[in-house]
């Protein structure tokens, strides 16, 4: 009986942890989403906006790099990195992460579309 109680508690804990991680990833992607994820960042007329944009992208890149360290088979994290590096104009790193995406899922349509643009 005690064994089932411990097992049930462990399952409940893991489900709660998974829910928190999913919610965090969802919230972060909603905040950082844009209408055209593949488009490289364009120059804005106000210098301060460029700095804010590059800082925000840099923070996102740092976040997703941490995610891929923790979840090395998480295809969407590599895709997000490819998109972000493409936005910064760093096509070499964008291609690197895009290749990682395609190695995990060779038929991933979004990755195939981005590969045509790089």
What is the fold's blueprint, element by element?
Elements: H1 2-32, H2 47-70, H3 75-88, H4 91-104, H5 109-117
What can be said about this structure in brief?
With 118 residues, the chain is an all-alpha fold.
Report on the architecture of this protein.
With 118 residues, this protein is mainly α. It has two domains: 33 residues; 78 residues, Tetratricopeptide repeat domain (Serine Threonine Protein Phosphatase 5, Tetratricopeptide repeat), CATH 1.25.40. It is 78% helix and 0% strand.
Supply database-style keywords:
Serine Threonine Protein Phosphatase 5, Tetratricopeptide repeat; 5 helices; elongated; 2 domains; 118 residues
CATH topology of the largest domain: Serine Threonine Protein Phosphatase 5, Tetratricopeptide repeat
Q: What is the string of helix and strand elements? A: HHHHH
Rg estimate, integer Å: 18 Å
Structural class: mainly alpha
The CATH homologous superfamily of the largest domain is termed Tetratricopeptide repeat domain
Biggest sheet: strands, sense, closure? none
Kindly report the average pLDDT value: 77
- CATH top level of the largest domain is Mainly Alpha
What number of domains? 2
Overall morphology: elongated
Share in β-strands: under 5%
Terminal CA distance: 58 Å
SS element count, helices? 5
Helix content: over 70%
CATH architectural grouping of the largest domain? Alpha Horseshoe
Number of strands: 0
Sequence stretches where pLDDT stays below 50 over 5 or more residues: 39-47
């Amino acid at each position: 009986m005690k064994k089932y109680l411990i097992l049930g508690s462990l399952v409940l804990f893991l489900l709660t942890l998974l829910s928190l991680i999913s919610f965090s990833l969802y919230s972060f992607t909603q905040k950082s989403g844009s209408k055209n994820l593949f488009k490289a960042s364009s120059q804005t007329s106000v210098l301060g906006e460029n700095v804010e944009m590059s800082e925000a992208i840099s923070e996102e890149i740092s976040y997703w790099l941490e995610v891929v360290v923790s979840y090395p088979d998480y295809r969407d994290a590599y895709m997000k990195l490819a998109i972000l590096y493409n936005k910064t104009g760093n096509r070499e790193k964008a291609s690197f992460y895009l290749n990682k995406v395609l190695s995990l899922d060779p038929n991933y349509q979004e990755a195939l579309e981005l590969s045509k643009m790089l």
